Amino acid sequence: MDNESGSEKRHTTQARILLTDARVLYYVDAFVLRKQFGSDVPFDCTQVDNLRRLAESISAVFPNSKPVSRTTVQYWYQKREELRAEGKISKTYWQALNEELCRKWPLTTASKADRCSDDIPPPFDANLSLPAPKITSRSLSLGAPTSIYHFGYTDKCGDKTLCYNYDEFNPDRVKVYHLNRADLQDSTGVSYYKCSTCKGRAQVNISGLFVSPTHPHEDDCIGLDRKQFDCDQCIRYAKVLIRRGVSKVNAHGIAQDRAITLNCFDKLFPPYAILAKTYSNVEGTRKIDEPVTLKTGERWLLHKYDTMRVYATDAMLQTLATYFNNQWINKLCDRWC
Predict the structure, then answer these.
(1) Residue 152, number of CB atoms within 10 A of its CB
(2) Cβ(175)–Cβ(192) below 8 Å
(3) How far is residue 205 CA from its own chain's centroid?
(4) For the chain, what are the domain ranges?
């Protein structure tokens, strides 16, 4: 019987989906073209709009096979993109594929914003108080502020300890500032920052971001590479999501889609297999909400789980003690009476 059951299990094993299949290549190469065209894609890219949809579309073509994962299609995309960039695939092939996609997947009149919100994961969750552009005004005392700046993520949090702005003269660079100290007075609300690559200083107040006139950036300060910085921010965003309760796979997928939107995905954004251990470590540091105190008084920790703590108040413990004491007295009476 064991041999028969084992053979049945071997026969019921689902087949794997391979890149060598022409139908798989069709979808993967369509995603390559979609990425190449960016926002000006000439065909309807709903089925290959992001890696998650690409994996779902390929898996739907092979219902009797094992569903393909997002990490796998990411590897396939990178492999085909490298071949395209190196010129190992003729331009005639890509032109013919583009014409075929325009014929089979014609653009509809509906705009991208009219689609279901589940099709394209939002780059940021509004409930997390995420970085948003700050449009600043002019200040007579400190000069003209930086027109647009952002608050970014550090490895441990997503508060205002990191501030950055893209270089107006070199769009491929970004100036990054770390919080030095903050004025605790609510009336001023001034935060002082220092440059991450030089001794420059800056401050953020209600009017915007101002570079210190007495401690400006050094002449050779060019900031950080924009694509690498954006990629690091996407990874840190995934960590923030994991700390807030999002699963590791979903958090990685959201950050991955964000990296594609910011054009910092190619050859920079690591696959899930590389970040899995880091995500697991972050998952172990999830914040545990304090329990609601039912009665004012001391709370006693009864047991601690990975994601939950069990507390009891004085009143609860007194009730339990009284109950067990009465049970013990009743047992003695039954025994000796």
Answers:
(1) 23
(2) no
(3) 29
(4) 10-114, 121-287, 299-336
What are the contacts of 124-129 at 24+ separation with CB within 8 A? 124/237, 124/258, 125/241, 125/244, 128/158, 128/240, 128/241, 128/244, 129/158
Nearest to 150 by CA among 168, 174, 169: 174
Which three-class secondary structure state does DSSP give residue 158?
coil
Using only C-alpha atoms, the chain has a radius of gyration, in whole angstroms, of 28
Write down the pLDDT at residue 39.
65
Q: pLDDT tens across 219-262, in order?
A: 888 889 999 999 999 999 998 888 888 888 888 989 988 899 88
The pTM for the full model equals 0.47
Cα separation, 24 vs 118, in Å, equals 23
The phi, psi pair for 74, rounded to 5°, reads -65, -45
Does the pLDDT of residue 101 top 60, yes or no?
A: yes
Q: Are 273 and 317 in contact (CB under 8 A)?
A: no
CB 234 within 8 A of CB 158: no
Q: Which amino acid is at 181?
A: R
Q: How far apart are CA 57 and CA 61, in angstroms?
A: 7
Are 172 and 226 contacting, i.e. CB atoms less than 8 angstroms apart? Answer: yes
pLDDT tens, 283-320?
877 755 544 444 444 566 666 655 566 777 767 777 77
The candidate with the shortest Cα–Cα distance to 117, out of 257, 267, 273, 312, is: 257
Q: How far is CA 46 from the centre of its chain?
A: 21
| 144, 315, 322 from 318: Cα distances, Å | 66, 5, 6
Token readout for 283 is 């998952």
Tell the residue number behind the tokens 């030095």, with chain if given. Answer: 180
Q: From CA 303, how far away is CA 15, in angstroms rounded?
A: 46
Give the closest residue to 175 by CA, choosing from 196, 199, 145.
196
Single-letter residue type at 293: T
Tokens 């924009």 locate to 226
Q: 208-211 and 224-225 as β-strands: parallel, antiparallel, unpaired?
A: unpaired
Q: CB 294: neighbour CB atoms within 10 A?
A: 12
Task: Give the separation between CA 188 and CA 312, rounded to whole angstroms.
Answer: 43
